[in-house]
Write a structure and sequence with these properties.
Length: 584
């Protein structure tokens, strides 16, 4: 509290504040984006995953394809967070589902008159759902006593207690001789009401006595050792415990669809069933196409594959090791074209968005010339190639060859965490890797590096021995330089958002300049720039020269920022000289 403010006489006392600038924060470039085949999980949706355990719980482990093992390698090598898009073979918009497409396992449950009542479906597509067991049981809930006689056609009852009674509940009114069934539409203080369309058809006397009880449904779900139990459910959409809604909110294994029924209560209740398996689940992976991985963009909520990742601003690294599946499925030119199409889309996305880089796999071959031909197709500083494939321990095999892209995404993240985005992701151990698909010679390493292919060497473990982009431009030769500028772009865009509706004048220009210089000074102190002094390392210019009157009039504000990035020392020359002691 400032006492002087309150010692002034009553009146208006303006308090002028500075332009609301904010300190810039370094953007996170460690978040990876993956597209591929999983055992289960949501399809066509980018889901944030923060640990390997969370991935297993959401997507399971699929051994025939590359995504599961690649994400495991990502987290093992230092990855913190990633977005995963599960790809399945699905029909194009407006096309029917065939036996070649992925499908959910399901089962239709009948009501008391053997009419379709509920459809139980696995939570996602895949054969995994065929192992889900589901059973339905009847149960009773809270009870009360009728306290005032009921005549034929009445729609309201006075009861001893309404504790536990809710709108939408199926209720049974019964004595020794008869029963009535109604669905509650209103619950008051010791009074319950139901629809005029379903009046009671019998007289009920309070002295009989007449009891009122809630009829409930239980759903029991099992998948191997996993169990889910949902109790106190109702089949009226008006109920807070409406079964499809509760299961949708809480279950990770199944969903319920209300098929509706014309059967009157209580026959509208779902029939009790012994445990039975769902059926009809299909993976659709045998017919997987590049289009399934690329996906499509039909607007928010209708994006799939790589297009779903394009909409996630946090993704800084793009990896799709699943593209290599086409090389195994169609050896030869056909498979190469399919895999290359996916990689081409990855590069195009990164080039267009300019806020991420793509890690690309070379083909699983022993032929250096084939790898070189594969690499020469791409000209982009937003992409980096890695080869050969890595030998990693696998659950189903003693050793499995994996495309390195997903694992290298974890190495990128580890280098960013330990040093910074300016650190070249090279000459660091690949954790978990125990072998290489090809032992690359010294001469081959030179050829590959010169062509922009980052190879691996066995030196105190397996290490990436290169940090080149797929660009022939000397200014953008190194992946850490490109990623440094990706970080700067994202940081400056986010950090300058406050100025969007500020006055386009010298005060705002000065605030932008000050916050940007402070930000770059911090990066310079961490060694992200090449020059020794700040004047040589970076500059910021936001004044009348960058913002002439015609630009100001049109609402355009321009700030020039330049930096001298630190490049890796790839070639170190050491001279060993013999020293001769002078005689005498």
């Amino acid at each position: 509290m400032r006492p002087s403010t309150y010692l002034k006489p009553p009146g208006v006392h303006p308090s002028w504040s500075e332009t609301p600038s904010r300190a810039l924060v370094e953007a996170d470039t460690r978040v990876a984006g993956f597209v591929g085949v999983t055992e289960r999980g949501p399809v066509h949706t980018a889901r944030r995953i923060s640990s390997w355990e969370e991935f297993l719980a959401t997507y399971g482990y699929e051994e025939k394809h590359y995504l599961s093992a690649s994400v495991e390698g990502f987290f093992r090598n230092g990855g913190r967070e990633c977005f995963v898009v599960r790809a399945v073979h699905a029909p194009a918009a407006g096309q029917p589902v065939t036996e070649h497409h992925a499908a959910r396992a399901e089962r239709v449950i009948a009501d008391g008159w053997n009419k379709p009542r509920l459809r139980v479906g696995a939570a996602s597509e895949g054969v995994w759902g065929n192992e889900v067991w589901v059973s339905f049981r009847h149960a009773t809930g809270p009870e009360a006593l009728l306290t005032q006689d009921l005549e034929l056609g009445e729609v309201e009852a006075q009861v001893s207690s309404t504790r536990g009674f809710e709108v939408g509940a199926l209720v049974r009114l019964y004595d020794r001789d008869s029963s009535d069934y109604v669905v509650l539409t209103e619950v008051g203080d010791r009074v319950i009401r139901w629809s005029v369309e379903t009046p009671i058809s019998r007289r009920h006397r309070a002295a009989s006595p007449t009891r009122i009880e809630i009829l409930e449904v239980e759903v029991h779900v099992a998948l191997r050792e996993r169990r889910e139990v949902f109790k106190h459910l109702q089949l009226s959409p008006r109920s807070p415990r409406y079964a499809p809604r509760v299961v949708a909110q809480q279950s990770t294994l199944v969903s319920l669809e209300d098929l509706g029924t014309s059967s009157p209560a209580p026959h509208s209740q779902v029939a009790a069933e012994l445990p039975a398996q769902l059926s009809g689940g299909r993976d659709g992976t045998a017919q997987l196409t590049p289009d399934d991985l690329v996906g499509e963009d039909r607007g928010p909520g209708h994006r799939s594959g790589l297009m779903a990742l394009a909409a996630e601003d946090e993704v800084g690294i793009l990896a799709c090791p699943e593209a290599m599946v086409f090389l195994e499925r169609h050896p030869g030119p056909e498979g190469e074209l399919e895999a290359q199409r996916v990689q081409d889309v990855m590069v195009d996305l990164c080039e267009n968005l300019r806020d991420r880089v793509a890690i690309l796999d070379g083909p699983p071959t022993h032929q250096i010339d084939r790898v070189l031909r594969w690499r020469r197709r791409t000209e982009s500083s937003y992409a980096a190639y890695y080869w050969p494939w890595l030998g990693m321990p696998s659950r189903g095999e003693s050793l499995r060859r994996l495309p390195p892209a997903g694992i290298m995404a974890g190495v990128y993240a580890r280098c960013d965490t330990e040093v910074g985005v300016h650190q070249a992701p090279a000459n660091v151990p690949v954790l978990g890797a125990v072998d290489l698909g090809v032992r690359v010679t010294e001469d081959d390493l030179g050829v590959l590096n010169q062509e922009g292919i980052n190879a691996f060497r066995i030196i105190r473990g397996i290490r990436p021995w290169g940090a080149r982009t797929a660009s022939s431009d000397p200014d953008w030769r190194y992946i850490n330089v490109r990623r440094l500028f990706v970080m700067l772009r994202r940081s400056l865009e986010a950090g300058m958002a406050w100025a969007t509706f500020e006055p386009n004048n010298s005060r705002t220009w000065a605030a932008i300049s000050d916050t940007t210089r402070d930000f770059l000074a911090g990066l310079h102190q961490r060694g992200m720039f090449a020059a020794a002094t700040p004047e040589e390392a970076y500059f910021v210019k936001c004044d009348e020269e960058t913002n002439p009157p015609e630009d100001v009039k049109s609402g355009l504000l321009t700030c020039w920022v330049g930096v001298a990035p630190a490049a890796p020392a790839e070639f170190i020359t050491v001279s060993v000289v013999k020293r001769v002691e002078a005689e005498g």
